[in-house]
Each structure stands twice: as C-alpha cells, then as structure tokens.
Design a protein that fits this description.
By secondary structure, this protein is α+β, with helices and mostly antiparallel strands. The chain contains 14 helices and 29 strands. The chain has five domains: about 10-230, GHMP Kinase, N-terminal domain (Ribosomal Protein S5, domain 2), CATH 3.30.230.70; about 245-320; about 335-555, Ribosomal Protein S5, domain 2 (2-Layer Sandwich); about 565-630, 2-Layer Sandwich (Ribosomal Protein S8, Chain: A, domain 1), CATH 3.30.1370.10; about 630-720, OB fold (Dihydrolipoamide Acetyltransferase, E2P) (Beta Barrel).
Length: about 725
C-alpha cells in the first residue's frame, strides 16, 4: 500500500553575513490558519500565524489589527511560576515585542481594508543564547506572505548591536554585555518602517550606520519571502470591498468647509478651543440632514471632514506656509517651564511642561530588596532601575476610571526607561534600587519625551549622580505624494497631538550633550527613505540641545539626598567568612540588625549592603560589621560588653564573635576579691589587649587601659614624673 503524505512542507533558507542560517518553513503546523510559518535559527523556533475575518464588521472605518507575542515556558524546559503552573497574561517584555511587530506591519495594510486581522507569534523552542524578539517580525511577515490577506509587505525586523566597534546582526545574549548600541530595525525591501533601541551615548553617525547596516540584511529577508509567496501562489491576494463612498457628498464637504477649516487651522488657538471649532463646523454641516438621512450619511460626513478637510487643511498649511496649528515655525520648540522638588515628601520630584504637555515625575530610592524581579522564559534576575509611565484620563480632559496599564503606557514607559538607563550610575557607585514614576498631568503630544526630561530632573533632585542629563524631543513629518512619488515633505520639531494624528511620522529621540541614548520611530507611511530619516535625526539633535539648556537652568547637578531617603553603604568581607557574619542560626547578623536598626543584605561574593533610615543606624551597623573582621592586636584599646564572669576574671566581647579574658588581677588597680565587685554581665568596658597566646587566647586588661588614660591626661596637662 502506497504511503500517503499527510503534509507538504516548503522551506526557504536565509543566510546571514556571518554564515548563520534562518529557516522559514510552512505547510507543517497550523494549516487551518490563513497563513502559518515556523521560523528557525539554531534551536530557537517561532510559530507565526495570521487569520483575517472574511469581511469587515459594519461601520468599521479603521484597520482592526491585533498582534500577540507569547513565550512558552516549555520552549526552554521550565515550569511557569505561580500556583496554576501555566502561562498567564502577557508580561511587559511580551507586550513590547508585540508592539514592535504591530508598528512595522500596520502601515502596510491597505487604507480601505477593515477586516479584523489577528497575528500571533509564539516561541515554541528556545536556544538560551538566541534572542527571539529579533526573529518575531520576520515570523509575522512570513505568515502574511503565505496567506491571501492583502498586505503591502513583506517586511522583516533585525537587531543590530555594536560590539568592539563592529555592527553585528542578531547577536547572542552572551554578546550583549559588551555592546554600546542595541537597536531593532524594521523595513521593507525599499524603505525603513520602524526603529527602536538604546545606546550608550553614541553619535548620530554611528546610529545611522547601524540603521543602514540593518536595512541591507532586511532586503535579503524580504527577497526570500517574495520568492516563497510566488512559489505557493500567494502573491495574488483576496478581493474585498470595505468602504462605501458618496463622491458628490465628498466634493460638497470639500467645497463648503475646506476654507473655513483652513481659517481655524491658521488661527493659532489652543488645543481644546481648536477642537471645539472643528467639531462645531462639522456639526453645522450635518444639521442640514434629517435624523433618517444621518443614519447613512453621518459616518461619511465624519470621514470626509476628517480626511479631506481637517487633515488636508493642517497639512497644506504646513507645506505651503511653514506654519503650524499652534502658530509655531516648523523648527520651533513649544515654550518650556520646569520645577524641581515640587513634592516635599518624595525622595525627588520634578515638573516638566512643554506647551500643553506636562509630566509630574517622582523618584523613590530603595534597597537591594526593592529591585524589580524579572522571571521570564529566557531572562531572570533583578533590575536596579525601573520607570513607570501613567496616563490618566484627566490629562486630555476625558472622563474614565484609572485602571491597569495598557500597551501604550507600557511602551511609553519602556522608551523613557531605556533612554535614561545608560546614564544611571553603576550599582557599585550608587547601590540603590531606583524607581521613577511619571504621571502625565496634561497631554498634547510627546508625553514620553516629557517623561524623559522630568525623569532626569527628578533623579538629579533625588541626589542620583547621573553620568549626564538626558532630554527627549520628537520630530514629525508631513509629506505630499503624486501617486507613488513623494514630491515634497517638511519635518516638524516637537510635534503636538494633532501633528502626530494627521502627520506621517512620530520620531522620538533622546540623548545627552555627548550622544544618543534611545529612540523610537513610528510611521503611517509604508516606509521612508534613509535621507529623510537622517535629516530628522539632526533636527532632533539641535532641539535636544536647546531642551537640555532649559533643564540645566532648573537643576544643573545632583542635589543633596533627601532626608526621607534610606541610607545605604556597602563593604566587602572575604567570601569564605560570610558564615561568621551570619553566625549560627543567624545569631550575629540578627544582633547587629537589632542594635543598629539597619537591614543587611549579603551577596555571594562577600559584598555586604547595609540599609538604614537614619545615618546613625547605618554608621553603627557598619562599625559592627567591620569590627567583626578586624584582627585583634596587642597594645590596642577595645570597647565591648562583659559576656560572662568567673572566679578568675571576666570575659569581654573584644570584637563580634571574639572574646578575651580579663584576669581578676587586671580588672582594677589594687587587689580584687570578687569579679562581680568590679564588673557584671552586660557592662560595657574599655580594655587593652596585653597578649595573645599560642592557642589564640586573648588577654585583656582594664587596669592597663586606665593607666594609659591617666598617662595621656598627665601628658596633656604638661605633668611629668
């Protein structure tokens, strides 16, 4: 009987410049999805799938794209944590990878395609040294490439690191500790779509070099996907009709409302006043129709007014006159005011206000025990520095409840965090856990960049010795096309919300006066040429410098640490003597903590971190710890408690865990009949070490200490025998 083949797998190979290979396989898993692939590199395998609804839901006038990324614990042979022992909701890292994929895919779907599209990428096998997020964008795009879903790709995403001055594509985890640049780049075969990353104050030239290097690799990935799509006959996509239009209504709206909208756009009014005028203009036009007519026409009126009147008025005003909605020139930053120490009880605080965008940011300093615990499929450990971004409804004048963080808040917080992280001092220099929390008070564009600026100032106000201050600024873009050909464009420095919404780009760039630390590019276009990207980078550099100057006027250097902040100091003891510090059953360390009021944390290498709310407690704990590891020396004075008495003398604690005998003859001048006549258990005495025998037994003398004290007094008084 002839064996029947149950699947027909098709494979394509991408060979990287260094000889490593990426394999794309389809036809084996998840065949009922519209498109599915497995992307493999080493032992790492990602399953990418895509499913699209057959038609759009009624009244849907946008692209309902949902992207999910999930790492399976079984992929690396681990049990999930928690009582249920199964994967829970997406963690922050998974959300951020999903956003990376989404931001590269979304601009490439047809503008009139409104069917629900679900893209999922699952890590199903993991090589512990391969970073899977660098392959996730490729897996998503390849799944679309082998489907009949309309899509203007393919795309790919790669990670670029600079290690030892050389760019490396998709480096291993083990290589990253030596990298001074770590970026993700997404693009098509022709253009750049998305960039995101962090750097250790590298130059704009180095940053551009990394993007160009990445794009050369992306071109190869896209070419293989095009070949795969043609081989499977998936280069012809499904037909659809998701929009109903009324050209006569459209032309009427343009004819009657464009000039009025242009006048509103050029009036230079504030955000809410301007929005109210636009809404009133649309409502006035809609009022000519009956309620029955509006059931059909209202969505079209809103669409045409938004796309063909309001949006075009703003864009033409910028392109034709170089004037923006708020009256600024294209290269002009909104007015800025800053203030530090606004919140007296916080460890550090700052307000940064740029136009109608405002962030109130706080810093909290904590101990090693307060560090964020990271327990992901491939990454475990703790993080010294974290930044959280919160966007309450009142910041835009909306009603609504405060809830958990959404994907946007997680993404904005991550951007601000990685932009500031390169200037945070090393743990050895500043052994504090650091949490920055940004509360957006007002929003009209670039709240993440306001967070970077406010966060930097609040860190300085808290006394954190930053390597250098960091500022952030956004650059927008407005273009005009004739068919597929871009005829003109204008870059916009420090964009407001409407320029983000109606414009083509939101490019956020952060850095110090020495170089770039972080950036993120979002596009509504199907990619932009590198020369426009380069122009935007240098526009941002000038703007960043201007913002840093304003911040410097508010706070120029780290302030004195708040009296409300905990005090932390570290010392080092021999690693093989950690047990001595802890003592049997924790006796020694508990005694030190009880006496000083401090908390003590010991690392495996012998580093001892001491935390206290008061400086006195910190000093006492440090004294007790260091004393324990001192060597008792003959002739030196020591102060300690009497721990026991005998008929022949008393034992005192010379150093923690080390006792010495004070013979009854050395307790005082003259003859002592009974030890308890001079000292009792618990008394604190000062004695001199007068000897250490061959067996290490320590001999102490109160009498000798008293004689030394009298001799010193006499010498000070000028009395000689």
């Amino acid at each position: 009987m002839e064996e029947k083949k149950l699947y027909n797998a098709v494979r394509k190979i991408i060979t990287l410049a260094d000889g490593r290979q990426i394999e794309i396989e389809t036809g084996k898993l998840a065949k009922q999805a519209d498109g599915s692939v497995v992307v493999k590199m080493g032992d790492t395998m990602l399953l990418g799938t895509v499913v699209a609804a057959k038609d759009a839901k009624p009244d849907t006038d946008f692209m309902p794209l949902q992207v999910e990324y999930k790492e399976k614990y079984a992929a690396v042979g681990r049990f999930p944590g928690g009582f249920m022992k199964r994967e829970a909701r997406a963690n922050d890292s998974e959300v951020l990878v999903a956003r990376l994929i989404d931001r590269a895919l979304r601009p490439l779907f047809p503008a009139d395609y409104h069917a629900e599209v679900y893209v999922t990428v699952n890590l199903i096998s993991a090589d512990k040294d391969i970073q899977p997020d660098a392959l996730a964008g490729l897996a998503a795009s390849a799944a679309l490439a082998v489907s009949d879903i309309p899509f203007g790709g393919p795309i790919s995403e790669v990670r670029v690191a600079r290690i030892g001055g050389q760019y490396v594509i998709n480096p291993a985890f083990s290589q990253m500790q030596d990298a001074d640049l770590d970026i993700m780049v997404g693009g098509t075969i022709d253009n750049i779509l998305m960039v995101e990353g962090e750097m250790k104050e590298v130059s704009e030239e180095v940053m551009l070099g990394a993007i160009k290097f990445a794009h050369e690799e992306i071109k190869k990935h896209c070419a293989v996907q095009i070949e795969l799509s043609k081989e499977l006959g998936k280069d012809v996509k499904r037909t659809y009709c998701h929009e109903v239009n009324d050209e006569e209504l459209r032309q009427t709206i343009i004819r009657e409302l464009y000039d009025k909208a242009y006048a509103i756009a050029t009036s230079g009014t504030m955000k809410h006043e301007r929005e109210d005028k636009f809404n009133a203009l649309e409502a006035e036009f809609a009022a000519r129709y009956s309620e029955e007519e509006l059931i059909e026409k209202a969505p079209l009126i809103h669409k045409y007014f938004h796309d063909d009147v309001q949006k075009k008025a703003m864009r033409n005003m910028i392109l034709d006159e170089g004037v923006r909605l708020d009256g600024r020139k294209t290269d002009e930053i909104r007015p800025i005011w800053c203030e530090v120490d606004y919140l007296p009880a916080a460890h550090g605080s700052a307000i940064f206000t740029r136009g109608e965008t405002q962030s109130l940011t706080t810093v909290t300093l904590g101990t090693k025990l307060d560090e964020k615990v990271k327990d992901e499929v491939l990454v475990q450990g703790t993080e010294q520095f974290v930044l959280h971004y919160n966007f309450p409804p009142f910041s835009v004048g909306d009603t609504g409840r405060f809830g958990g963080q959404n994907r946007r808040e997680i993404g904005h917080g991550a951007l601000a965090e990685r932009s500031i992280a390169p200037v945070i001092p090393a743990d050895a220099d500043f052994p504090y856990a650091i949490r920055v929390s940004s509360e957006v008070m007002e929003s009209n564009g670039s709240t993440s960049m306001a967070t970077v600026c406010a966060g930097t100032m609040s860190l300085l106000a808290a006394g954190v010795p930053l390597i250098r201050p960091v500022a952030g600024i956004s650059v927008g873009l407005v273009t005009e096309f004739n068919g597929d050909q871009m005829e003109r464009y204008v870059t916009l420095l420090d964009i407001i919300g409407s320029e983000d919404f109606y414009g083509d780009m939101d490019f956020k760039l952060c850095g110090t006066d020495a170089g770039v630390t972080g950036y993120q590019l979002d596009l509504k276009l199907p990619g932009i040429p590198l020369d426009i990207l380069e122009e935007a980078i240098y526009v941002a550099k000038k703007g960043r410098s201007d913002v840093l100057n304003v911040m410097h006027e508010a706070i120029a250097a780290p302030a004195e640490m708040s009296p409300n902040a905990p005090r932390i100091e570290s010392t080092k003891i021999p690693a093989d003597r950690i047990g001595e510090l802890i003592g049997p059953g924790g006796k020694n360390i508990k005694a030190i903590q009880a006496e000083s009021g401090a908390d003590i944390n010991i690392e495996e290498d012998g580093t001892v971190h001491i935390y206290a709310s008061k400086q006195e407690g910190l000093d006492r704990a440090m004294e007790l710890v260091t004393r324990m590891f001192k060597t008792i020396e003959i002739g030196e004075l020591y102060t300690g408690k009497i721990v026991s008495t005998t008929t022949f003398g008393a034992f005192m604690e010379v150093l923690p865990g080390k006792d010495g005998l004070i013979h009854i003859s050395e307790l005082a001048e003259g003859r002592t009949v009974k030890t308890e006549d001079v000292v009792s258990v618990g008394d604190v005495v000062t004695a001199k070490c007068i000897g250490i025998d061959d067996k290490g037994r320590v001999k102490m003398s109160i009498r000798a200490a008293l004689r030394d004290a009298k001799a010193a007094e006499a010498e000070a008084a000028g009395i000689t025998e």
